[in-house]
């Protein structure tokens, strides 16, 4: 975690962040996300729960947390947590999804404080939030590109760094990598002979991703023009604008994707690099008949239940189910409006009904 965040942390929070970063092995980005969530909680304690700070004079988002007493954290109860949830709804206008994340972060924080892993001076006898339920997030299907839109995106790449940017989009759309996974690729992660990429996913969990002809072709074409870098000599994807050719950051890759979506006239669809991951998974399932269990391994999901959302995105199974009905071939054989039918119809036409 960057030093500026550490400077604002009380000791009990700093210890927790060190633990999840160095022992649990969470990425810097994940550690920072935990910090942000718990920072909101600590600001709530001093400004709302204990009224130590006048919010008319100090913005909530500017409240320092360095000196928040551990006693405030220790005295927090399950009922207090419900009040905090209401604060997140009414004052912070958080969605169910955001509140669920913040609730999970808070519960994990208290799990740490109530365990032997926490320093003794900051240890709780029990976790008061052990039974705190997570808000149920709204179930929404992720956005993705259709097959023709994906082809359009690849066909309309316009860039001074065409081979690099085309390669980035090709890997996203064919392999379903996460943004951080693609940004972190090194030269020795690629094996042309084995046609594989070694990828490090969440928690630095390693997996092997197999490459198709499109990915091999795009990678080889880019690597022929890839410059040498003194700063990041091992990185596959480098900035070609800077003289030192640093590894592309997550944000720079996001901008590359945004620019190419705009070039293809797809910039208004809310597509991001992560949505390209959804696209790859959906296309593999719908057009490649890939089993969800196999797809789970390709995407690096821990549970197949996470992968099953892509079976809901596709209309393929529902279409097959309807077409497989034993009555699917039935057709009308002609006009059966015979006299008995006509008589029945006419009998309904009483004066009262006319």
Task: Walk me through the topology.
Layout: H1 3-6, H2 11-23, H3 28-49, H4 70-74, H5 78-90, H6 96-113, H7 147-155, H8 162-175, H9 179-183, E1 190-191, E2 196-200, E3 206-210, H10 213-225, H11 250-263, H12 273-288, H13 292-299, H14 304-307, H15 309-313, H16 316-323, H17 339-347
Antiparallel strand pairs: 1-2, 2-3
Helix pairs in contact: 2-3, 3-6, 8-10, 8-12
Question: What are the defining features of this structure?
Answer:
3-stranded antiparallel β-sheet; disordered C terminus; 354 residues; mainly alpha; single chain; 51% helix
Helix share bin: 40-55%
Continuous helix count: 17
Largest sheet: 3 strands, antiparallel
Strand content: under 5%
Oligomerization status of the protein chains: single chain
Secondary-structure element pattern, one letter each: HHHHHHHHHEEEHHHHHHHH
Question: What Rg is obtained from the alpha carbons, in whole angstroms?
Answer: 28 Å
- Average of the residue pLDDT scores: 84
Termini separation comes to 82 Å
Tally of strands: 3
Q: Which segments are poorly predicted (pLDDT under 50) over 5 or more consecutive residues?
A: 339-354
What is the overall shape? globular
Strand arrangement within the widest β-sheet reads: 1-2-3
The structure class reads mainly alpha
């Amino acid at each position: 975690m960057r030093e500026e965040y550490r400077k604002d942390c009380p000791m009990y929070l700093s210890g927790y962040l060190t633990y999840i970063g160095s022992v649990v092995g969470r990425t810097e980005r994940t550690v920072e996300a935990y910090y942000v969530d718990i920072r909101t909680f600590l600001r709530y304690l001093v400004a709302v729960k204990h009224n130590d700070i006048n919010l008319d004079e100090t913005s909530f988002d500017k409240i320092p947390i360095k000196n928040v007493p551990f006693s405030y954290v220790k005295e927090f109860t399950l009922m207090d947590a419900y009040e905090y949830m209401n604060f997140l709804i009414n004052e912070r206008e958080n969605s169910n999804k955001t509140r669920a994340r913040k609730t999970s972060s808070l519960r994990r924080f208290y799990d740490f404080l109530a365990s032997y892993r926490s320093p003794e001076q900051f240890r709780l006898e029990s976790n008061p939030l052990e039974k705190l339920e997570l808000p149920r997030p709204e179930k929404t299907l992720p956005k993705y590109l259709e097959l023709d839109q994906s082809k359009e995106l690849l066909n309309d790449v316009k860039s001074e760094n065409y081979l690099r940017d085309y390669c980035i989009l090709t890997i996203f759309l064919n392999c379903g990598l996460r943004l951080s996974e693609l940004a972190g690729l090194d030269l020795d992660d690629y094996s042309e002979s084995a046609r594989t990429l070694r990828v490090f996913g969440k928690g630095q969990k390693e997996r092997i991703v197999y490459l198709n002809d499109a990915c091999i072709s795009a990678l080889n074409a880019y690597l022929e023009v890839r410059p040498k870098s003194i700063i990041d000599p091992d990185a596959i994807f480098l900035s070609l604008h800077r003289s030192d050719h640093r590894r592309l950051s997550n944000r720079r890759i996001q901008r590359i994707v945004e620019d190419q979506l705009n070039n293809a006239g797809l910039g208004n669809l809310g597509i991001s690099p992560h949505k390209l991951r959804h696209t790859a998974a959906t296309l593999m399932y719908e057009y490649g008949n890939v089993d969800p269990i196999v797809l789970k391994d390709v995407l690096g999901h821990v549970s197949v239940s996470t992968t099953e959302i892509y079976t809901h995105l596709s209309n393929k199974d529902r279409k097959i189910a309807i077409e497989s009905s034993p009555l699917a071939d039935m057709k009308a054989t002609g006009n059966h409006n015979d006299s008995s039918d006509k008589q029945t119809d006419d009998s309904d036409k009483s004066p009262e009904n006319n």
